[in-house]
Amino acid sequence: MVEQFVGTWTLIASENFDDYMKALGVGLATRQMGNIVKPKLVISMDDGVISLRSESMFKTTEIKFKLNDEFDETTADGRQTKTIVTFENGKLVQKQSWDGKTTMLEREIQEGKLIAVSMA
User: Judging by beta carbons within 10 Å of its beta carbon (0-12, 13-18, 19+), is residue 113 exposed, middle or buried?
Assistant: First the structure.
């Protein structure tokens, strides 16, 4: 059911994102930009490979992966992580690990909107 995520999504609102970025150790200037940018997220699939492309005037990033396969990711804030994305209970769950730390990002569709929840 990952197909339900395929499409272009635009950030409308963000709650507690600054606190999340602080917990990750993101610097003040990057946090300020992160708080004002409203990126577009383009999700596509091709032959079992999922692409998540985040586009904004500040930065564009893209990751490509297969579900349940760990891969190396360079995050928008420059962290080098080991990342795995799974599909659990209708949610895309992205788990990033680096330097003994872990963070998760859950994405799900609710009432035609993509809801993303970040947990440090």
Answer: exposed
Would you say 19 and 25 are in contact if contact means Cβ atoms under 8 Å apart?
A: no
| Residues 77-90 as b or e (16 or more Cβ within 10 Å = b) | eebebebbbeeeee
| Burial group, residue 66, by CB count within 10 angstroms (0-12, 13-18, 19+) | exposed
Domains, the chain, with CATH or none: 2-119 (2.40.128.20)
- Helix, coil or strand: residue 53: strand
Q: Do residues 10 and 40 make contact, with C-beta atoms less than 8 angstroms apart?
A: yes
Per-residue model confidence as pLDDT tens digits over 72-109: 999 988 899 999 999 999 999 999 999 999 999 999 99
